[in-house]
Amino acid sequence: MAQSPAASLTPSAPAPNAEAPARPKRTYNGPSPRTLLVTLAMVVTASVLAGVVSGSVTVLFQALITGLLTGGIYSLIAMGLTLVYGVLHIINFANGAMVALSMFLTYAAVSGLGLHPYMALLITVPAMFVLGAAVQGTLLNPIMKAPIHTQLLVTIGLALAIENLLLMIFGPTPLSVELPGDHGVSFLGASVDLSRIYAFIGALVLVALLWLVLHKTRIGTAIRSVAASPEGSRLVGIDVKLIYVLTFGLGAAATAAAGTFVSTFTTIEPTAGSVFNLTAFVVVVLGGMGNVPGALVGGLVVGLTEQLGGLIFPGQSPLLTVFVVFLIVLFAKPQGIFGRAS
Amino acid sequence: MKKEEGTVKAATKLILVPTVAASLLALVGCQGSAALGGDHPDDTAKEVVIGSLHPLSGANAADGQQMSFAAQMAVDEINEAGGIESLDGAPLRIESVDTKSEPETAQSEATRLIQEGASALIGSFESGPSANISSVSERNEVPFVMDVAALDSILQQGYKYSFRIQPSGSMMGESSAEYLDQMTKDSGEDVTKVGVLYEQGNYGTAVEKAFANRIEELGMEVPSAISYDPASSDLSTQVQQAVAGGVDVLAVTGYYRDSLLISQAISSIAPEVKAVYGVANGGFDQTQFIDDAPNGGAGYLNANYRLDVTDDRARALSARFDKGFGAPMRASAALSYDAVNVIAEAVEEAASADPQMIRDAISHSDYEPVVVNDGRIDFDETGQNSHAAVSVLQVKDGAIRTVFPNDLAETVYTFPAPPTSAQN
């Protein structure tokens, strides 16, 4: 592999000493200006095309706004996935099931305790953190050196267990959580619900929080160094297994936040999270595996592609364009939009 | 040393993985069924086994579990009333399995049920799994009575052992168009343009095609027919597309989750339409749609199969179901109840548990169903219940009411019924 998938989690300021002045140190974590420009140009072209095909400015505006907002939701859900992959190199197939679990926890908190849906974050985030830490500590830590498919199977098993437990406890009838005061807002003829705007803001806040934790705290530094080199971290005295436990916990906590935000505008059922699984993986790979801000951009690109693609190719599944774009990006930039060449 | 450590680790791994797998299997197994007796059906049967195949887990579990429960209810009632008389009171037994919404699982489970002695099968809510069960039952010459499965082509293969109680996708699409036409004319409203939104799968496309064709034959226009992925998390753009340029009525064919998303988008976009009209819609006639939809879904119309609420027997059944299951009975569950009863009557008539004889008896079934039907059940040569019918429902005063055709109506319909006005 030419490129460590965890590139962006690598500490960006090692040994500032004499010997390597030739190469300027890059602390900038984002894509190159050229990549950004190309991405932007493609979005504009697609918008113009979609506008022409659909023949309605309102429809185009709606598609752009919906694309941005659903993109925010996708990145929200992909955040935990990319963090866990970046540090643990585990592809967590239970991510969707964990989103569903958090949705049901939110439902229980709202209907049982009468909490405001967003106050449920105070319950779902710590609860899922503990659950994630427990999963890593008991199920995954013992098999971290096993081949990747072993961990993959454990997470698939976990997903099945969570979904069927939810079905057993809550039954199959779909549930819902209402956000008090939720209503549509109009913008240039396009309309969106407030709950979706809040979820989008939630995604931005979550990215910022995760970035701060990873880059401004000692734990974050430890996480990034474990991502870069578990052996090296062990040598300098970092408890690698503990960091694994914390990271999976952190990933699960991010998933919990996603679940709570999403629960206010979607139907709550055991499979409600796994419908996002495929999209979330695309988002993670597009954004660069293990790259938290990348997941945000990846999510927005997928959201917009889905909406505009749906307009340009009527009658086709929106996933068609998503995967065409996915293949093109992988061909041009195999390490993802946010990945950097070494 | 090192090698030993490795061996120990490998051993832990070897133990852990199967343990996890085994406990998972046990979990999944909880929902499965007890082992079947291997007795083969013969004329001196002690019991007659009916295999029930529905999605008990996954996205359609809400319907699947209701349907499985209703099938069990039907069998319990027959057994309590003395079983199959012509077989000296032999009881019926339901063997309920989970298709997991997967065609291949449906196929293997149907094969297993038949091998273990099922005399007939019912199922399965989804068209894909139903198509596979159909071909298995044909090959094994065991009758299969479909409760819910809309796809027309399942019965266009020349099968002799497959029967369908619900109206096919095209029957529902056509009837919906005709009812819309009559209702708008009766209320003196001018409806010339109908926008259509439909889920992109087998069911949505089959219904939409028949609906749009019939609408155009009736002299109305379909300026936009927009398909969507039912797994989407937002359908605002599709709603905008369907109403772009102005339509009088917005017709929607979809499942529960996506129909709810559409109602949310309609609420925030507030298009100027005279009504939202479900065409065989799986969401607009669910009781929880009233709880979940903006403005309680007031005014929403839906043409669909439905429990015949004018019938005392159907109403009593619905009340018993609600008490036993703990949730209001869906029309899909009523169809499963009917499917079991069609088979039970056939067994009674054939006086045998032999699948071939049961099949012959089913083919001239004369059962009166609890769902809305043009009289008694009548399977044509393809196996379709040619008397299957839809009725139109409307959300009124916080409840779902049958409003059309008039002889089945509980109350009069409101038209126009714009989705955004509060007075509906």
Structure notes:
The complex is a heterodimer of chains A (342) and B (424). Chain A is mainly α and 342 residues long. Chain A has 2 domains: 197 residues, no CATH class; 68 residues, no CATH class. Helices cover 66% and strands 2% of the residues of chain A. With 424 residues, chain B is α/β, with parallel strands linked by helices. Chain B has 2 domains: 174 residues, Rossmann fold (3-Layer(aba) Sandwich); 153 residues, Rossmann fold (3-Layer(aba) Sandwich). In chain B, strands 7-6-8-9-10-11-12 form a 7-stranded mixed sheet, with helices on both faces. A 5-stranded parallel sheet of chain B has the order 2-1-3-4-5, sandwiched between helices. The N terminus of chain B is likely disordered. At the A-B interface, helix 2, helix 5, strand 1, strand 2 and helix 11 of A face helix 1, helix 2, strand 7, helix 7 and helix 8 of B.
Indicate the multimeric state.
heterodimer
Rough outline of chain B: elongated
Strand order of the largest sheet of chain A: 1-2
The helix/strand class of chain B is alpha/beta
Strand and helix order of chain A: HHHHHEEHHHHHHH
CATH class of the largest domain in chain B: Alpha Beta
CATH superfamily of the largest domain in chain B: Response regulator
Termini separation of chain B comes to 80 Å
| Overall tally of domains of chain B | 2
Strand count of chain A: 2
Query: Radius of gyration of chain B, Cα only, in angstroms?
Result: 23 Å
Q: Round the Cα radius of gyration of chain A to an integer and report it.
A: 20 Å
Q: Largest sheet of chain B, if any?
A: 7 strands, mixed
Helix/strand order of chain B, N-terminal first: HEHEHEHEEHEHEHEHEHEHHHEE
Give the topology, please.
The complex is a heterodimer of chains A (342) and B (424).
Chain A: H1 33-54, H2 57-88, H3 95-113, H4 121-140, H5 148-170, E1 184-187, E2 190-193, H6 194-216, H7 218-228, H8 230-235, H9 240-263, H10 277-287, H11 292-312, H12 318-332
Antiparallel strand pairs in A: 1-2
Helix pairs in contact in A: 1-2, 1-11, 2-6, 2-9, 2-10, 2-11, 3-4, 3-5, 3-9, 4-9, 6-7, 6-9, 7-9, 10-11, 11-12
Chain B: H1 2-30, E1 48-54, H2 61-80, E2 92-98, H3 103-115, E3 120-123, H4 127-140, E4 144-146, E5 162-164, H5 169-186, E6 194-199, H6 202-217, E7 225-228, H7 236-243, E8 249-253, H8 256-269, E9 275-279, H9 287-292, E10 301-304, H10 312-325, H11 331-350, H12 355-363, E11 391-396, E12 399-404
Parallel strand pairs in B: 1-2, 1-3, 3-4, 4-5, 6-7, 6-8, 8-9, 9-10
Antiparallel strand pairs in B: 10-11, 11-12
Helix pairs in contact in B: 2-11, 3-4, 5-6, 11-12
